[in-house]
Each structure stands twice: as C-alpha cells, then as structure tokens.
Amino acid sequence: MPAGPTSSPRDPPVAPVISGTVYEAFCRSAARHPDNDFLCVLPRTAQRYGMSSLTLAYSRAARQVEDLRERYRRAGLGHGHRAGLMLENRPDMFLHWFALNALGVSVVPIHPDWRSTELAYLVSHSEICAAVVPAARSGDLARAAAEAGRELVISPPDLATLSPVGSPGPLAGTEPDARTECALLYTSGTTGRPKGCVLTNEYYLWAGMWYMQVGGLCQLDPGRDRLLSPLPMSHMNAMAFSTLVMVLTGGCIVPLDRFHPSSWWDDVRESHATIVHYLGVMPAMLLGSAPSESDRRHSVRFGFGAGVSPRLHVDFEQRFGFPLLEAWAMTETGAGAVLIANRAPRKPGSSCFGRPGPLLDWRIVDAAGGDVPAGEPGELWVRSATRRREFGFFREYWKDPQATREAWGGGWFHTGDIVRVDAEGDFHFVDREKNVIRRSGENISAVEVEGVILQHPRVAGVGVTGVPDPVRGDEVMACVVPRGTVSSGSQVELAHEVLNLCLQQLAYFKAPGYIAFCERLPLTATEKIQRTQLRELALALLEQPATVDLRAGKTRTSLT
Question: In angstroms, rounded to a whole number, what is the distance separating the alpha carbons of residues 356 and 78?
Fold first, then answer.
C-alpha cells in the first residue's frame, strides 16, 4: 500500500445505518443471552469500593435497569435532560447509564478526582439538572451548584432521596433514537477549560460495531469473551469501545477501579479475562516485576490500547505471550476515525498503529496545510470516507461553535497528532502538536493548571508543560516567576503552597510534580507563552538541584 493522502472516490459509499439507542442494544442482548455474565466485580475491586463482589447476569442487570428507569421517570427526568454520574467504574455506572439512556437523558460522567473549581465549571457548562454521587461527595456537588448558580437535584446511587427535577426535558414527547445525545464527555484542550464533546447513540453503537467487526488479531468470541479494563468510565475507551463491544456480543465486562500492578495478574486469572485494555504506562510497570513461571498462565488473547514504549513492546509480548495491539482514536473521532495494528506485520517496537480501513479518509500535512512528502512527519487530518464526513465522530463541542469549526477546518478533522506513514502504508505515532500533557493516560491542559497557580498571590507568572517520566509518560512541571524576591529556602515553602492550592481545586494528577523558579518565561511579542521554548526551559531546569520535586505529594483520594 503506497504512502500518501487519500480522498474518497467521486461517489463515496453510504454510511452504515445505525438505529436505536444504547439502552435498546442492551435490552436485545439481555433477551438473547439472559444467563450470560454481563458484569463481574472481583473481590479486590469490590473491597476498594466498600461493596461485595458480584457477577451480574444480563437478565438480572436488565431488571435493575428497568427499576432505575422507572424511578428516574417518576422524578421527571426525560428526553433532552442531562444527568451527572460520579460513579467511577462501579456497577452503578453501567446500570444508571442504561436507565437514563432509555429516557433520552444524556449522561455526564464526573471524574471522581475533580474538585471545587472543576466541579463548578462542569455543573454550569453542562447544564446538568441532576447528579448521582456517593454520599461523601454530595456536599461538594451542592457547593459547586451554588457557585454556578444552578439548581441541581443530588441523589445517592440508590435514588432513595431522588427529588423531582424542576422542568420537563427539552425534547419531551419525542422518542430517543440514534441521533439523540447519549453522553457529554469532557476532554482537555488547549484553551484552559475542558471541552464538552457531544456524543450520540450512533457514536457509541458504531464504536461497538467497529470493534465487533474489525477482526484479525481482534477476532471476538461472541458470548464467551470477558473483557477486563482498568480504564475510567469517564473516558471514551472504556465507555464506548469496551462496554459496547461486550454488550453487542453478549460478553462480560470486568471493570477494575484502576490499575494495580501488584494484583493485576491475579485479577486477570481470577476473572478468566480473554481481552484486556491497557495504557502505555501499564506494560512498563508489569515488566518491572521479576519473571515468573506463571507469566503465561492466563486466558488473554490480546490487549487493546495505546502508548506502549517501543523499546518494551517486543519484550512484553515475548514474556507474557499475547500481542499488545496499538490503536489510535480520540474522543472527538470515536470509531469514525480509528486505526489499530491488528494484522501482520504489526511492527511492534516502532510506535506503529496500523493502517486505515476503507471508511477512513486521511491526510498528513505541514503547518501550512499542505501534504507532506511520503515518510515525513506531519499532522494527521481525518474524516469519514462515507457521504457523511462526520459519521462516527462527535457532534460538536458543547457551547463552543468556533472550536468545532476550527477542528473541522477545510472539511477535515485536525487531530493535532504528528504521525508518519511508512512505505508499506503503516502509520507511526511521532508526537502531539497540541499543548496537552499526557500523564498515565490522563489528558491535562497546561492552561487550566496555569490558571489555578496564578491565583497564588506570590506568583507573578507561570508556564506549565510536560517533562518525561519513565513510568507515567509525562509529568506536570510548572516554571514559576515569583512575585518579589524569594530565597532558596522560601522557594521550597512556596512550591508546597502552590501544590496545595492545585490539590484543592484540581484533580491530583493535574498538580505539578515539579516546580522550578525562574526570572522570566519565554513569551511572544503579544505576551503569549512560546510553548516549544518553555519545554526546553523546563528540561534544562529539571536538571538543576533547586527544582522542587513534589511528586510524593500528588496523592489520589478515593471515594468511600
């Protein structure tokens, strides 16, 4: 396959016909496979959530979904409403999502590590009318709603105290369908605040259908597969790809609360997982353990993920005996533009993520938007090769039409990812053009972190960037211009004050792991930070003994 941009033929194919809703797809599987396991919560995961382990069959799950649906209906939730769910990867997350989807209510997953500033923004921006959260976080949501000036019905997961919402759904009287909004997922961008991606039922159903049909080393065993994933349900990988492919094939979802390297293989074996989903940080940590004769004692056929270190890819597969299939997609692209190295030659160790299928158009361009020569790196632009160029993609950035238009400039979705295509037509990941820090699978907006740090009265300026981390991919580093003279001893004190400020307002993973103090930041003539030079400055300062290492202070607070 020659390298080079593609464009659809003069008469492009019609987009696949997707009908119905996620709820209806779940109901069909429950009718076909009533006794199949739908959801398995392992003892270690259950203990961390303070619940009992369980295995839930499709039929039993369906009854619980119907009970929740009726309770939501009685509370007045309906088509066009949005409801926030801070339920992590608990069974409630799946059941409440399907129940709300049945009524045409879009769900807004709320990251459990978000704090005051982030929550107030989400409540205001998303316009949720209800939120289901553990009792320990209800006060946080109530304060966020008060700060946002919005009425918000807040309930624990059992809905025992669910109050009626104030007004009917904007689309009351109409039935939800494939074009109905299914979820609003927030993803970090370059403008400071997270962007809300509007995702339809079609988006989710096509993600599951694509996965179900892609074949090769991803060949599924309908009704028998058990998919284990530690990825959060606030991300599209877990919520769209892994959940929907198991629903559509009658398989079992095994959600972990998060990745625990010490118990990973025990969970894999105990769950009888046949598929695992991973992030790049995971193989590195698993390879760090001592080799064991039990390394290949599992039922896993393949891993689905992204970001494995090229130098570790082959070592992992040889040691543990299954392929890590590197894939590429974004929240915005869904399965409308997804690639995966699921067929030979996969070229492990080269950051290869496969070649495009027949429903994907692509270009690789330079800064001026011109196609780069074959083999050269450039920004990846994508669109559907069907008559609906946006098929499978997100609908829009909520309340941000300008960002939506810019993302689709010239009729192509601009990914911001730098890739190259080799002579055989295989895609290789090079770097990210966008100013997003990727730490342990979490996308972090540098501008958002800068906005919080600038609230400190002793900070005159700050630039935030990512620096390499051998375990997490990137770590957050803040280059701070202090206000006034700060002694070396006071710098350590100020650095910890900045860290505490960030931990109060942001998820722990967004807080700086390093803080270095400098006299000035690299700025443009219009006083904007020059991001390339900032990263060079950060890398130089990282080697200086005066840089304050705060990584030990970045601790995760779990829900109880």
Answer: 39
